[in-house]
Amino acid sequence: MCGISGYIDTARRQGEQELAHTALRMANALQHRGPDDVGTWVDASVGIALGHRRLSILDLSPLGHQPMQSTCGRYVTSFNGEIYNFKELREELKRLGHRFRGQSDTEVMLSSMSQWGIESAVTRFNGMFAIAVWDRETRLLHLVRDRMGEKPLYYGWAGKTFLFASELKAIRAHPQFHGVIDRGAVALFMRHNYIPAPYSIYTGIAKVVPGEIVTIAPDPAVAPQVHPYWSVASAAQRGREEPFRGTPGDAVSCLDELLREAVKLRMEADVPLGAFLSGGVDSSTIVALMQAQSTRPVQTFSIGFHEAAYNEAHHAKAVADYLGTAHTELYVSPAEAMEVIPRLPTLYDEPFADSSQIPTYLVSELTRRKVTVALSGDGGDELFAGYGRYFWAANLWGKINSIPRSLRQVAACSLTMLSPMAWTTFFRGISPVLPKRLKLRNPGDKPSKLAEILTVETVEALYLAIVSHWKSPTEVVLGSREPLTALTDRSRWSDSPEVFDRMMHLDMLSYLPDDILVKVDRASMAVSLEARVPFLDHRVVEFAWKLPMSMKIHEGQGKWILRQVLKRYVPAAFQDRPKMGFGVPIDSWLRGPLKEWAESLLDEKRLLDEGIFNPDPIRKQWSEHLSGTCNWHYYLWDVLMFQAWLDEERKTRDINSTNSLEQGTFLA
User: Fold this and answer.
1) Strand-pair partners of 134
2) Averaged over 331-349, what is the pLDDT?
3) Is the per-residue pLDDT at 656 higher than 80?
4) What angle do CA 395, 396, 399 make, to 5 degrees?
5) Cβ neighbours of residue 138 under 8 Å, at least 6 residues apart?
6) What is the pLDDT at residue 661?
7) Residue 173 half-sphere exposure, CB side, CA atoms within 13 Å?
8) Which of 123, 452, 478, 546 is spaced 20 to 30 A from 145 at the CA atom?
């Protein structure tokens, strides 16, 4: 695992020494991603410079040093990630006459490109990767991102200079970069709590979309060419055209075999290896398959909280004890968890507000004390219908879709006639006579949410309403307009008749790569830990799309087939518990120990002076949250994480005088 960066000075104003110096500066901004080695490669005749920070996982010798040049001399790469099937490819290439100096997957990757061309080679790779490869023959730079988006890659133009990097902090390190906040991206962030690809927080800087190759000519007048080599949509379409024809038992055996192979490939490392274990179905399955293929106890790691509503550690320990893993757990106090908050803007590099970022960082930090690589159970919910919101949305859609839209609009108007505070007062007044199932916690915001849902016309619009934080972010972010995303661009929607398929399709396009995988990548890389995700082996993903919904959902419960696989290794009793999120009690913290910090960031005068947000709805929600009238912690955490990021951005600009930005330009 590594950090990659680089640039093309199309004006060719710099000599080799200056190119190398700037490339080194960019690379060193990513030292946390690669603490073991640093390297640069430049060609002053073109104005290109590549930088690399290395976290040594395979071939720890200097023969794995990057940037690396292909044996034929045509290709030069700075590569982040792992090609898990590199040994198989290596043997094939040997039979075709290739020779290798070292044992790294990088060398195999370059030889594959020399043999088959870049796109054809990439389609053969089973891995997670962000690749920058310079073709010296065609004088084109190719940026490649893995199929599901496990590894990040940003790019864009700063005048006549083209920039790319694993993280924005390396792009900010280039003296030609003068970032301007993209207000449309801020609006998207306020809706989703993350900024979906291809957008970034800066105007003119994009993310490479998962499964795509972006080709750049060293000429700012020539637009980058974007070409997909794999997509969730194509995988889903193939799955519908060629569905699995076997029995449920056959499907369980097939998935078991695929997952065992995916796990085995991801256990390849020349450094200590372990796994995150929450005790849930997904992480327990990964750990069980690891232990089944290991001759020694697998090292597993869990974070616990003393608050019962947020604690899964005892479930993880029970699974670890049964499987016989070498288990490490750490119970974290609220004070210790909150100590992470000041670091979040630096860790995530652009606004990011999934509050499970805190425990994810803590478990990564714990894990890194003993191992350098950890396997994760992420992806199981999106592949096998594990989220409760899928069931809630499908049930709700079935009910509201049968009601004429005109009647739904009338009902919606009626629900919004009272304010959230008035609804709260009403529910509290009738609470003594309500049955327990109708006694809602913080009921004030429920009618407005229901009103919005009643007016939707499609499953996708319903799902957008359900997963959105701020429902009308352009009213909160001044001067903004929301660009299209996977959830609003009809051309990217699934044409499946299955409601569950359509929601999982949307999550695989956005929530999984832009929230879940961002969270895991930044938290783990912050402590120089490589996280690997076996569920996102593309063969597993493609198999999941072939399965009928009856093999994913059974008797109102998701992940049926995955549960059957786990039962082969762990008794069913270990699965009989409610699904828990990996969260922390942000709601109560904001009313208690974080109140002063939050108040300073949400100060009305400050918000007015900065000119990004309309203070009125924010201050209203802050007041209602403090009073306990409504629970607005998700909404407020979005604003707080943006404000904290903005603070950190200003500090960076003040320290780095060569990359300083005028405030008026920065906030344009």
Assistant:
1) 76, 141
2) 91
3) no
4) 90
5) none
6) 39
7) 23
8) 546
Shortest CA distance to 58 belongs to which of 101, 110, 104, 100?
104
Judge contact between 193 and 172, C-beta under 8 A.
no
Q: How far apart are CA 265 and CA 43, in angstroms?
A: 36
pLDDT grade, residue 234 (50/70/90)? very high
User: What average pLDDT does range 49-68 have in this prediction?
Assistant: 85
Query: Tokens in use for 394?
Result: 């499908």
The vertex-259 CA angle with 257 and 264, nearest 5°, equals: 95
Residues that are catalytic: 2
Q: How far is CA 509 from CA 210, 286, 383, 539, in A?
A: 8, 23, 12, 17
- What does the pLDDT read at residue 55? 82
d(Cα 429, Cα 298) in Å, to the nearest integer?
55
Q: Which residues of 379-412 are buried (b: 16+ CB within 10 A; e: fewer)?
A: bbbbbbbbbeebbebbebbeebeeeeeeebeeeb
More confident residue, 448 or 292: 292
* C-beta separation of 261 from 255 below 8 A: no
Strand 530-532 to strand 373-375: parallel, antiparallel, or no bridges (unpaired)? parallel
> Which of 109, 633, 112 is closest to 354 using CA atoms?
633
57 pLDDT band, cuts 50/70/90, is: confident
Residue carrying the six token digits 């690379």: 27
β-pairing, 530-532 vs 68-69, is unpaired
| HSE-CB for 290 with a 13 A CA cutoff | 32
Q: At 277, is the pLDDT very low, low, confident or very high (cuts 50, 70, 90)?
A: very high
Q: What is the pTM of this model?
A: 0.92
Tokens at 422, concatenated: 């008035």
Average pLDDT of 356-372?
Answer: 95
Asked if omega into 67 is within 30° of 0 (cis), the reply is: yes
Which is it for the CA torsion 545, 154, 121, 225, positive or negative? positive
Distance CA 42, CA 431 (A): 71
Q: Which of 469, 503, 456, 243 is nearest to 355 (CA)?
A: 469
Across 15-19, 376-380, 415-419, least confident range: 415-419
Query: Smallest Cα–Cα separation from 9: which of 132, 170, 177?
Result: 177
Q: Beginning with the edge strand found earlier in the chain, give each strand of the sheet holding 205-207 in spatial order.
A: 37-43, 48-54, 2-9, 161-165, 154-158, 205-207
**Alpha helices for 438-559 (secondary structure H):** 446-454, 459-467, 499-506, 517-525, 538-546
Strand locations in 101-159, DSSP E? 127-135, 140-145, 154-158
Q: How confident is the model at residue 659 (pLDDT cuts 50, 70, 90)?
A: very low
Neighbouring C-alpha atoms within 13 Å toward the C-beta of 650: 9
How distant is the alpha carbon of residue 599 from its chain centre? 29
Query: How many beta carbons lie within 10 A of that of residue 65, not counting itself?
Result: 17
- Could you say which DSSP state residue 40 is in? E
CA 441 centroid distance within chain: 30
Cα angle value 345/350/351 (rounded, 5°) = 75
Where would I find the H helices in 78-117? 86-95, 105-116
